[in-house]
Structure formats: structure tokens, C-alpha cells
Task: structure prediction
Amino acid sequence: MWFDRLLQGFIDTFLMVGVSSLIALLVGIPMAVILVTSDKGGIYEAPVLNRALGAFVNLFRSIPFLILMVALIPFTRLIVGTTYGVWAAVVPLTIAATPFFARIAEVSLREVDHGLIEAAQAMGCRRWHIVWHVLLPEALPGIVGGFTITLVTMINSSAMAGAIGAGGLWDNSYGYGYDPIDSQIMLMVTFSLEAMGGLFHFGLGRLVRRIH
Result:
């Protein structure tokens, strides 16, 4: 039944995007903090580390997702034991999303008023206190907004992953809507992807407004 396949595709897409985005969130924020604090004039100034991490982030952020997904096939097989299915898609999705989100979070952290940091230093706050109690709280609205953009981008990327057998909504639309062409199924899949992106955008958008 095509409806059952469509429902399974929705669950698969939600799973691969959910797991990947959670890892990107947990890894991307520390990466952004390191990029900001290790920069020249930062509270943990370390130019060599900053340049190395910046080069790593720029490298993976600039590679188109489809090329990255194919290039990571051996690594994906090593990590999850397969190059097919939802969990195989999680690996390239995570590696693509993490540096993307890290750069967005970095911009938000850099926009924090430097006067607040200087005031905290003048009060004798330890450096990790400044990160935890000044930088992150002040940058939180921008970080949440950036995470929303990352989620929507990941939903688009999950469609590309589905096109090569990773499962998800696009995989089902290809099997039932494209070959042979069935415009009704294609429209339903497109609507489902848009609805998922809109749901994330609406929910996190409300969170941003509450934080402000």
C-alpha cells in the first residue's frame, strides 16, 4: 500500500534528520565556542588551533552534499556497517550539518557585546564561566535561529540521500511517484517535506521569540 510506504518514508526522514541534527547541535556548539574563544583576542587565544579548526570547518562546509555523501561511502560503511538505509544517511548528514551549524553559531557568538565579556573579566569571572554564563546565553536566540536554518537544510539534503537508497520520503516518491510518473504521489511527498520543514521552522521560531 503506497500510503504505508509514505508513512514509513516520513518516519525514516524524521529519524535521519532528528539523529543527525541532535549530533550536529551537540558537536557544532562546542566547535563554534572554540572558534570564537581561540581567535586573536579571545579568552582562550590559540591561533594554531583556530586556523586548523577553521580550515576543517570550511572544507566540509564547502563540499556539495551529494559529492560528500559519495566520498564518505567507505567511512560510512566503517561506522555503521552499510551504505544503504536510514543509518547510512545519518553519517553524511551529520558531517555536512555540523560545520554548517558551527559557522552559524559562531556568527551569533561573535555578535555578543564585547563589553559584557570585559565586565565579566573585570569581576574576576573564570573563562569557562564567561562562556557558560555570558557568551552562550547572550547568543542563544541567534543559535536557535541558526539551528532552524540547519534543520530545513538537512530536510532538503535527506531528499538527496533518499535518491540513492537511503530511505525516507524521496525514496518512496521515486519508487511510486517518479517511476512511473504519478503526479499525485509526487505532490504529496513534496507537501510532506514542506510541512516537516514548516513545522520545525514554526516551533523553533516561537522558541526564539520567547527567548527574546
